[in-house]
Design brief:
Blueprint lengths: L6 E5 L5 H13 L4 E4 L10 E5 L6 E2 L9 E5 L8 H5 L3 E4 L12 H16 L6 E2 L2 E2 L18 H21 L7 H8 L3
Parallel strand pairs: 1-2, 1-5, 3-5, 3-6, 4-6
Antiparallel strand pairs: 7-8
Helix pairs in contact: 1-3, 4-5
Length: 191
């Protein structure tokens, strides 16, 4: 699946400024196409939005539940994703714990783990190594488009609801049912 898919990191309401920088470094290490602020319309087209949150329907990231290009939404370190942020997500992943456990991982640690799993699933090529270091490119190639908008999260939620409703209408016209709504997302995001 190399080069046909990409990952995007969406950050909203991260309390500690240094965590945004650390997420950006992890994004660079794991081939993320760009880091954006919630509300960017371009990142909803052609990709799923994956909330990194422990929810009832969340899948373990180790199962690699990805289907195509994915924008990852990470929540606040203390409170996680808000209900409004959850409303714009197409699916959720969580990071299984195997030891004594902790309530949650630091947002930058969680981001690194999730982005690594996406890179493995997507078949991103491993960066070359020289000695005991990875070779760093002069500048990211095909990354960091850097286009932002200032849409409110409410506007994004409303737009996504309309797109999902339109997908249901398309499915009904083609003899489908609402139970196939998640499959209709593919119809909404094709160019």
């Amino acid at each position: 699946m190399a080069a046909a898919v990409e990952s995007v990191v969406m950050v909203h309401n991260v309390a500690k400024r240094h965590n945004v920088g650390t997420l950006a470094r992890s994004a660079t290490a794991f081939g993320v196409a760009e880091v954006v602020v919630v509300g960017r319309r371009d990142d909803e087209r052609g990709c799923d939005i994956c909330g990194v949150e422990i929810t009832e329907d969340a899948k373990p990231v180790t199962a690699h539940p990805f289907r195509r290009s994915t924008a990852f939404l990470f929540g606040n370190e203390g409170t996680g994703l808000s209900q409004k942020e959850c409303d714009i997500c197409d699916f959720f992943v969580y990071i299984p714990q195997y030891g004594g456990g902790t309530a949650s991982l630091n947002v930058t640690v969680a981001g690194s783990i999730v982005l690594h799993h996406f890179g493995v699933w997507a078949g991103f090529p491993e960066r070359g190594r020289e000695g005991n270091k990875f070779i760093v490119a002069d500048r990211p190639q095909g990354h960091s488009r850097g286009l932002y908008c200032t849409d409110s999260i409410e506007a994004v939620i409303e737009e996504r609801k309309m797109r999902k409703e339109n997908a249901c209408d398309i499915l009904e016209e083609n003899g489908g049912s609402h139970r196939q709504e998640s499959n209709g997302l593919d119809l909404m995001f094709t160019d």
